[in-house]
Amino acid sequence: MVRGLVILGSVLAFLSAFAIWTERQALNTDDWVHTSGRLLKNETIRSTLSDYLVDQLYENVDVSKELEEILPGDTKDLAGPAAGGLRQVAGQGAEKALETSTAQDLWEQANRSTHEQLLAVLENKKEAVETEGGEVKLNLGSLLTNLAEQIGIGESLAEKLPPDAAQVEILKSDELKTAQDIAVAIKGLALLLSILTLACFAGAIYLSRDGRWVTVLLSGVGLIAAGFAVIVVRHIAGGIVVDQLVTAESATGAGEAAWDIGTSLMTSIAKTIIVVGVLFLAAGWLASPTNGARATRRYMAPTLRLHPAYVYTALGLIVCFYFLTGPTQGLRTLLTTLIIAAMAAFGIHELRRLTEEEFPEATYDDTFGGTRDKVVSAVKDSAITEKVGEQASKLRLPEVKRPGGEHGADETDAEAPTRTMPTGEDARLERLEKLGSLRDKGILTDEEFAAEKARLLGGDSSSSG
After folding, report:
1. Tens of pLDDT along 32-74?
2. CA 312 to CA 344: how far, in whole Å?
3. How far is CA 446 from CA 380, 435, 453, in A?
4. How far is CA 415 from CA 400, 418, 420, 422, 423, in A?
């Protein structure tokens, strides 16, 4: 049952990513308007849109005739060539016109109106169906008029544009029933799947009486796998969707860019799932019997035992910060955040119980004092070794020289007997004097002097015996 719950939770996490994306991206007008603004800022999409508007301008209005009416006298014959040249100028200027704040406002207004109309149709509101026959179109007529004004024929063009000029069909009448069924099925699905995902993992962890840390690790692995699966499916689906919806080869680049921008939220959701999975992995490792985890728990034991209120307060602050700074503050975000916070609180409770069993008397002195003592001891041992080496080098006797050689100079007698340290009582006294000198100079402490003295006297006694 535990393994089944972990697998089911991973699958639900995968599905919830798409449900959340659909709810926030396709069924939320403000989010879609924000995304549409990002679409127009993309150079590839802007270039394709400008070409489309110029084509619509020349398809719906006889620009040559309009110029013929404007041009004076004998120059009317130049209307045809001028219209062709104007088309090239319009193509170059349309993209720059779309960069202006006026064009961007018109684009966002058109997208807002279309999205509101789409939601009205999906919610089966009678006024929307009666007025539009169930069809939803993106009306870019205002942008087309704005383009005409940029090239100097806007006043006459606005009156002659047909009502269906520069309108992109979003939803056809025969697709209405299917779209409404999908909207009904998706509505509320993001909240349900998110709660069920966390409930599956929570149930699996609770049922794992023995080896609970393994279940936490597996839950983290499942969440990470689900997040990466969402990213892979998004990439594969992008190629299929663009091939199916974009028929003109020249617009393929714009279709790919629109898919990347429109589904960027899906990638963000997948990354959030992966981050939560990594937190599960960290929690599972912390509760594991490995040496590194046990050492970490030993460092955490004093805080968990002596100051639990601080720990839970820190958790509460983190939860509040995440909820207030998150992309949305809806009911789904609130409930999922509370569930994750409850799981984290349960994990802290279990960690406290484990550390109390392992380190019931742990204190901050035990945690940090042992490390400090080891460092001090290592430094002191190094200093003693260095000083003793210096003193030992001073005890070396010089080589014995004797006069000789052809010129009467002193030379070293390699075969001369080497002087040795005195033995017996004199040797012991000399060594004690050296130790006393080291103590007086502060190189040896009183305890170290006493220990060396006892060793020296003990060694000599056993030797003489």
Report:
1. 888 888 888 888 888 888 888 877 777 776 666 665 555 555 5
2. 10
3. 14, 10, 10
4. 10, 9, 15, 21, 23
Q: CB of 237 within 8 A of CB of 256? A: no
* Residue among 217, 196, 219, 247 at smallest CA distance from 7: 219
Which residue from 210, 187, 186, 327 is spatially nearest to 269, judged by alpha carbons? Answer: 327
- Scanning the structure block, which residue is given the tokens 């960027």? 264
The two three-digit tokens of residue 86, written as one number: 């104007």
Return the bridge partners of 379, or none: none
Q: CA angle at residue 35 from 34 to 36, to 5 degrees?
A: 90
Query: Phi/psi zone of residue 418: left (φ > 0), alpha (ψ -120 to 50 degrees), beta?
Result: beta
Rounded to whole angstroms, the Cα distance separating 403 from 88 reads: 112
Predicted TM-score (pTM) of the model is 0.68
Render the burial of 171-201: b for 16+ CB within 10 Å, e for the rest.
beeeebeebeeebeebeebbbebbbebbebb
